[in-house]
Amino acid sequence: MKVKEKILHDSQGDDLAAEKFHVLCDSNHYLSSAGIYYDREPYANIDAVHVTRFLALAPVGNKDKQKFIHALSPTPASKMASAEISAKPPNTTLSPYLSSDETESGNGAIKRSGDNDSDAQYWRYDSSKKRQKHGDGDGGDRLCFKFMSSGSCPRGDKCHFRHDAEAREQSIRGVCFEFLNKGNCERGPDCKFKHSLQEEGRGFSGRSGSGTGSSTRSKECWFCLSSPSVESHLITSIGEYCYCALAKGPLVQDHVLIIPIEHVPNTLSLPPESEKDLNKLQSSLKAYFKRQGKEAVFFEWVSKRGTHANLQVVPIPSYRASSVENIFNLAAKKLGFTFTTIKNDNNSARKLVGMNLDKNQSLFYVEVPGGTILSHGVEENEKFPFQFGREVLAGLLNIADKADWRNCQLRKDEETKMADDFKSQFKEYDPNN
Q1: CATH class of 232-427
Q2: End-to-end distance of the chain based on CA atoms, in angstroms?
Q3: Cα(421)–Cα(314) distance, rounded to whole angstroms?
Q4: Which residues, other chains included, contact 99 with Cβ-Cβ below 8 Å and sequence gap of 6+?
Q5: What is the mean predicted confidence (pLDDT) over 319-334?
Q6: At the N or C end, where does the chain have fewer CB atoms within 10 A?
Q7: What residue ranges do the domains of the chain occupy?
Q8: Which residues are CB-neighbours of 114 under 8 A, at least 6 positions away?
Q9: Which GO MF terms are attached to this record (predicted)?
């Protein structure tokens, strides 16, 4: 140990090499020229979300009998979930390549002459094929790995890659990054991640699948009743065309979903008989909540990717009902857009939203107490929070810590009891009873 400390203390380092490794941000850095064994704590990188592990090996047959061989089994980043890549061990330190000024200021980014090389860092995890030069710096429609891993990107609007909140949410749920980015995965059945889009409230389970064909879709969809993945203990009412289920990780008590039995991408384009079934459940839930001194707020995220539709229903105290439309408009203003407002004349609001639905873009809409609908078509590359509706209502109800459903997960026995309690109280209002 004294030998190692002396060598490390006497070493002057190399500024050029330090900058090189600071920029490259490799996940593992091996050294043999120091003549000692040294296993450093992992350190955080500035321009990448993963940590780097530094290991120096001693010469073979060294007199101090220091370790000269090291076995490892690396997993390509392209085969890892974003949560695995960005995980930081408890003993993670700052980067040793930061200058004292950078450490004190908290800004460890080394300024470089151009963006192209550093932008490549955001894409270098795609090992399925050789990376191409950016040329004019345009990343096209490729996803920003930094944003996908951490939810933010220091380049902001200057980043040449796509910041897609919905794609990141799918990645968190265990969907293959390559599948999200290119629409297919060259690893096929050997990939340990999902090759189909996953519904809200469902986390990563490590199951794989090709994601092709209706049979695969039905098997992997959490909302298809024929799927082995459906959580039947959450179901509270089943009609001929729609069913009702408690939300996974509910925002409040009696937070439920109205779900078409058929695997359709939204509830705005349902056949007349399915729409009638959905309207019955809406009316019954409104009456049920009204008895409790509450009003129902309905909202839906219509994805252009075409997941199984679900209309979320959140009860709020009646005295807050008049504030719902205003708080959604304020939230929209903060994000830089304005809702299209559709008054519920002759119960036609939902129909009008459906008539103007663009299948090439995602849509968010919310039906506030009174029937008025606020809708917003999400433009390509627009930064729109995937859980926007839930986040706004969490703010209205002063329960911001519950904005993310993952903070509200319950044990299965707790979910079962909640579902049984709901069914018991909703029984006299249930149109399918």
Answers
A1: alpha beta
A2: 76
A3: 17
A4: none
A5: 96
A6: N
A7: 28-86, 142-198, 232-427
A8: none
A9: RNA lariat debranching enzyme activator activity; zinc ion binding
**pLDDT tens-digit series, residues 372-408:** 999 999 988 888 998 999 999 999 999 999 998 888 9
Six token digits for residue 171:
């990645």
Cα separations in angstroms, 149 against 41, 84, 89, 269, 335 = 22, 9, 16, 34, 22
Q: What is the pLDDT of residue 79?
A: 59
Assigned token pair, 378: 């999400």
Bridge pairing between strands 340-342 and 43-44:
unpaired
DSSP string, 105-159: HT--PPP-S-SHHHHHHHHTT--SSPPPP-TTT--TTPBPHHHHHHS--TTGGG-
Q: What is the pLDDT of residues 43-90, one digit of tens each?
A: 887 666 678 887 788 887 788 778 777 777 677 665 566 666 667 777
Interatomic CA distance for residues 42 and 54, integer angstroms: 7
Q: What is the DSSP letter of 408?
A: G
For residues 260 and 306, the answer to whether their CB atoms sit within 8 Å is: no
Residues 303 and 244: their CA atoms lie apart, in Å, by: 20
Residue for token digits 């509830």? 267
pTM above 0.70, yes or no: no
- CA separation, residue 95 to residues 42, 111, 148, 149, 354 (Å): 9, 16, 22, 19, 52
